[in-house]
Amino acid sequence: MDGPLLHQLADRLKALSHPARLKVLVTLAGGDGCQCGAIVAGLPLAQSTVSQHIKVLLEAGLIRGGTEKGRACYCLDAEALATLRRDLDILFSALHAPAPDAACEPEKAHV
Amino acid sequence: MDGPLLHQLADRLKALSHPARLKVLVTLAGGDGCQCGAIVAGLPLAQSTVSQHIKVLLEAGLIRGGTEKGRACYCLDAEALATLRRDLDILFSALHAPAPDAACEPEKAHV
DNA sequence: ATCGTTTATCGGCGATTTACGATGGACGGA
DNA sequence: TCCGTCCATCGTAAATCGCCGATAAACGAT
What we know:
The structure is a homodimer.
Chain A: H1 3-16, H2 19-29, H3 36-41, H4 47-59, E1 63-67, E2 72-76, H5 78-94
Antiparallel strand pairs in A: 1-2
Chain B binds a DNA duplex through residues 18, 20, 35-37, 40, 45-49, 51-56, 67, 69-72.
C-alpha cells in the first residue's frame, strides 16, 4: 500500500462518497435498465445534477455507457467494481493492527 | 440498501476518500505506535493539515484517541473498521447485476 | 417542418474542502 | 524559571463540490 496506490484508491472512493452516486449504482444494479430517466426519477435532484453525478462515476471508471441514440444507456462496470472490491480488501487487510499492546486507550469514552 | 444507510455509508467513505487520510490509517496500523509526529513525518503536509485529517477520521469514528499528556495517541477503531468492511460487502453484493442481457454496450470504447 | 422528449453541458451561486502559517496551551528538561 | 517540543485550533486563501436553471443537441412523432 504505497503512495500512488493509495491515491488511486482514494479517487475511486471519492466517487462513491456521495449518497446520490451510491444510489445511482444501486439503481443500475437493480436491473431497471440503463435509462437515465429512471435514475433521475429515483432521486430528489434536478436532471442536470444527476447527469453530473453520472459523469463522476464515468470518470472514475465505475460505470460504462453513454448516449446511443437520444437515449442514454449506462451500466455498472463489473470488472472495475470487482477490482475496487479487491483493492479495498487489501486495504482492510493492511489495517489489521498487529497485536497492539493496547497501549492506546486514552479514555475509551463514556463506557 | 435504502436512503439513510447509503447516506451513512457515504459519510464514512468520504472520510476515506483522501490519500493522506488513507496513509494515516495505514501508518497507524503499521504499529509504529500512535504518535502524531510519526504520522506527520510520513506525509508531505504541514502539521496543522495532518491534524485536521486526523480530526476528520475521528469524527467519522474510524480512529480513536486524543492527546493524553502533551503527546497524542491515536489508534484504529477496529470495530468501526470491521463494520465498514461489512457494510461495503453488503453494497458490493447489492451491486451484482442480475444477468443483464448485455443490452447496454453503447460502444465499449476503442477495443 | 415543427413539436416534445431526453440528455449533456454551461454559467453561476453558496458551501465545503484542502492547505498553510501563526498562535497558544501543555508538558519535559536544562 | 525559561526553552524547546508537541499538538490543536484559528484565520484565511484557493480550489473544489453540489446544486440549480437555462440552453443546446439529437432524436421520434406528428
